[in-house]
Amino acid sequence: MAKVDEAMSKNFSNLMVSGALLSLVFFVVVQFIPLPTSEKSLEFQYEATAERLKPIEKLETASAAATESSAPAVAAAPLTGDAVYNQACVTCHGAGIAGAPKSGDPEQWNPRIAQGIDTLVNHAINGFQGKSGVMPAKGGFAHLSDDEVKAAVEYMVAQVTGGTTEAPASAAPATEEATPAAEPAAPAAAPATEEAAPAAATEPAAAPAETPAATANLEQGAATYNQACSVCHSAGIAGAPKSGDPEQWNPRIAKGMDTLINHALNGFQGESGVMPPKGGFAQLSDDEVKNAVAYMVSVVK
């Protein structure tokens, strides 16, 4: 009997061990068998992964988008009429120099306004040569848009008419529309030598051309001339001595480089013309103006 019990106990123990081993093997095998995965399940996993990455990516994208969207808005706004006037027109129209009708003066403006706003705007945009003055195209400020120039014209007309663009009924059209009604800029005064115009009237006799200072940067002077002086000096308009003309230049050169430079930097009113300070281009440095004077003296033949 004892032997039977011992055998049964042994068999039961073996059975338990075998069952445990089979369970372990089954568990291990199941881990290596891939379960079927639907496309929907995979898509969900991809979306979950993307969602985890989203915060950093979204922060950078939003920041970049904000920068891009804000940039164009700042550059888009055109200048107002008074802003254009103060930037480009006031040099001549503020004091009524170089043949420009003085801002707010009805006696000078009404005959011009009587010609019509379209005529004034056309002269201001495209330029106009009259008997007593010249209006360079856009006053020499080529970067201004047509609408900005028109706004400046309307602003100056409004200073006379009280807000309208029509002249009083009593105003007769000007026989000399020459001084354009709405010069949005100084009459192209060249920084270097417009002072010459006045000088010529009282000059004694022509003298040989003076050699520009050896230290002058003629290359920079040529660049400044093309930017600021050529509008008047290339054609000899508004009383400016024509570039390269010894008959007009030598009497002025005889005064000396210091005088020419002083007139170009600080302005000069003469009998036959006016030289605004730095030709109306206040952003030019003194050295740029000096080099422009030296360049124009150097091309006199």
TrEMBL record:
Domain of life, source organism: Bacteria
Keyword Iron: yes
Gene3D superfamilies: Cytochrome c-like domain
PROSITE patterns noted in UniProt: CYTC
Keywords: Electron transport, Heme, Iron, Membrane, Metal-binding, Transmembrane, Transmembrane helix, Transport
InterPro entries to which the protein is assigned, alphabetical: Cyt_c-like_dom, Cyt_c-like_dom_sf, Cyt_CIE
Residue numbers spanned by region Disordered: 164-213
Annotated TM spans: 12-33
Residue span, Cytochrome c domain: 76-160, 216-300
tRNA-binding recorded as keyword: no
Record's protein name: Cytochrome c domain-containing protein
Species of provenance: Thioflexithrix psekupsensis
